[in-house]
């Protein structure tokens, strides 16, 4: 395991915030401004209009906080060269682009990615949805070097996280890690030595992106536990897991297990047996 010290005078951020959240990128950029580190954000046309939790659209939040940004369609040499200077690094957070190999080779060990899950066991996208589906409580926040292979670069910093039982949705999980994300980034900006830890590919898992409108359909033949985990994985800030009632698609939020002492036959799975206000009780 090696270590290195780095001096940062400027950061080119690429990516953005999570959907309907105030972080993490805005918090990272504000920490840079607080420490007099020059920064610019390169953001795609899709994410610039993302909603935040309390600050309007992502664009409105950037402008209100005086964070410089440019909306671009892709990452190119010309764009990077426009903002690059000595002691400049690139820092990716929730980025939809794959950084071109030639840019990585031009800036060795100066391009980093923030990954808010364990590595290498939770590579890929929609990580916390997959984690909730699997019932995993212990995880990590990671900053790693960017290489041409996605999420495979050596780990620079990590922070262990253990989610309490109350973090049973995406929204609660994101809220829980917010302060730890900022702590990790503050440590990254410090002049302390960093890790250079190689990931073990033999321990890796890679998961694809999820879309609640396409992937969020409930299978009522699953067990109550598995349905609960699935609903948690698609809950707020997104629409929720979905099913059909009389040919009308409905979205479920705040799912929970009830009537534990009642035995239901598999033939009853998916039947609504009680309606109480906005609450639907479904046999599983």
Draw up the topology in text:
Elements: E1 10-15, H1 25-34, E2 38-43, H2 58-64, E3 69-71, H3 77-83, E4 88-93, H4 101-106, E5 111-115, E6 123-124, H5 127-134, E7 138-145, E8 155-162, H6 170-189, E9 206-207, H7 212-215, H8 224-234, E10 241-245, E11 248-252, E12 272-276, E13 279-282
Parallel strand pairs: 1-2, 1-4, 2-3, 4-5, 6-9
Antiparallel strand pairs: 5-7, 7-8, 10-11, 12-13
Protein model, in words:
This protein has eight helices and 13 strands. With 284 residues, the protein is α/β, with parallel strands linked by helices. Helix 2 links the parallel strand 2 (38-43) and strand 3. The model has no long low-confidence stretch (mean pLDDT 94).
Salient structural properties:
alpha/beta; 284 residues; two-stranded parallel ribbon
What's the short version?
The protein is of the alpha/beta class and 284 residues long.
What integer is the average pLDDT? 94
Please give the alpha-carbon distance between the first and last residues: 50 Å
Count of DSSP-assigned helices: 8
SS-based structural class? alpha/beta
Oligomer: single chain
Please tell me how large the radius of gyration is: 21 Å
């Amino acid at each position: 395991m090696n270590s290195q010290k780095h001096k940062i005078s400027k950061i080119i951020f690429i990516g953005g915030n999570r959907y309907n959240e105030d972080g993490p990128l805005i918090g990272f950029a504000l920490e840079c401004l607080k420490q007099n580190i020059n920064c610019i954000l390169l953001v795609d046309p899709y994410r610039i209009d993302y909603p935040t939790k309390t600050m309007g659209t992502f664009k409105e939040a950037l402008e209100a906080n005086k964070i410089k940004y440019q909306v671009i369609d892709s990452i190119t040499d010309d764009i990077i060269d426009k903002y690059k200077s000595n002691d400049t690094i690139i820092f990716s957070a929730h980025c939809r682009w794959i950084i071109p190999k030639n840019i990585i080779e031009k800036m060795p060990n100066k391009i980093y990615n923030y990954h808010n899950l364990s590595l290498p066991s939770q590579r890929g996208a929609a990580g916390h949805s997959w984690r909730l589906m699997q019932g995993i409580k212990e995880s990590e926040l990671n900053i790693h070097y960017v290489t041409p292979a996605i999420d495979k670069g050596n780990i620079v910093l990590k922070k262990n996280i253990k989610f309490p039982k109350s973090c049973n949705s995406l929204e609660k999980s994101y809220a829980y890690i917010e302060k730890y994300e900022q702590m990790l980034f503050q440590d990254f900006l410090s002049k302390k030595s960093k890790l250079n830890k190689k990931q073990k590919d033999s321990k890796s898992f890679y998961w694809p992106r999820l879309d609640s409108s396409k992937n969020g359909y409930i299978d009522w033949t699953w067990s109550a536990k598995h349905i609960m985990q699935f609903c948690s994985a698609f809950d707020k800030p997104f629409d929720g897991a979905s099913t059909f009632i009389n040919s009308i698609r409905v979205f479920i939020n705040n799912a929970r297990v009830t009537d534990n002492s009642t035995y239901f036959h598999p033939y009853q799975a998916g039947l609504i047996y009680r309606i109480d206000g906005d609450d639907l009780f479904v046999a599983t």
